[in-house]
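Section 3.1: Structural characterization of target chains.
Under the original work plan, the team committed to producing a structural model for every single-chain target entering the pipeline before any wet-lab resources were allocated. The record below documents one such target. The sequence was received from the expression subgroup and is listed exactly as submitted; it comprises 268 residues.
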Amino acid sequence: MFTERPLIEDVGIILEAQVRLVRVKAYACGMSDPEQAPMFPASHAASTFIGDGTVLAQPTSATISQRIVYVMEGLGVKSERTGEPINVHATRARRTTGTRAAQAGRSFEEIAAILDHSSLNAAKSYIEYCVDLLQSIDRKLAMLLAPMAQRFAGKLATRGNDSNQEIQHHVFGASHEGEGPVDIGGCGKHGFCGLGKPVACYTCRLFHPWLDGPHEAILEGLLARRRRMAEDGSPIVAATLDDTIVACAEVVRQCLAKGLPFQEQSVG
């Protein structure tokens, strides 16, 4: 029993070419029904005998895993975090697929179907892991991820020098719900911006956060808001703040690196 899956055209063309190559090899091996040949025959043996017929050898799970390693090594894929070659194997690829499906909010049944599981038990582990991961981000982790994630796309700015820094108007945002807005930076956009402030600002390339702005207070407010959302049973929704949290943490990190004090603002 095989599971039918839709394919994008680019992948389908490659697999069709592979099928044609396998058929040629199946004929050469004397296989009576080339349509029954494995799509990815074993490379260690040309053919094997089953009953009265000859068929192409089936690959083992170990040989498939080794092929994945060879492909990744040949492509020279490197980690953005370490700069070293990524250690990819079949199990890791499978776990990554399951985790990404859980992060996208897929159900137990959908994850089980994606991974071709006959039971839902394995799929539950991916969702439980994802929920734990989504609830765990804090200030320390945000500061650690900030320089690697590169979510902050703007440039730091100094107050009182708007014209030389291409600043059109100032951005005001509250560090906590219920508090009054404070001046956190400048904006280089001409005209009205309908995106939510300050959440959308920290990941915007037109945002110029002040070097002495209340960014630590904003970061604490974002983390507190995220915790409340996760505790209310909405971890997937809470995770929508992650890019902003990491971008804000990068602003804090860059300001601290310059040794400049932040404005005194309540963090509640």
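The CA atoms of residues 133 and 242 lie 12 Å apart.
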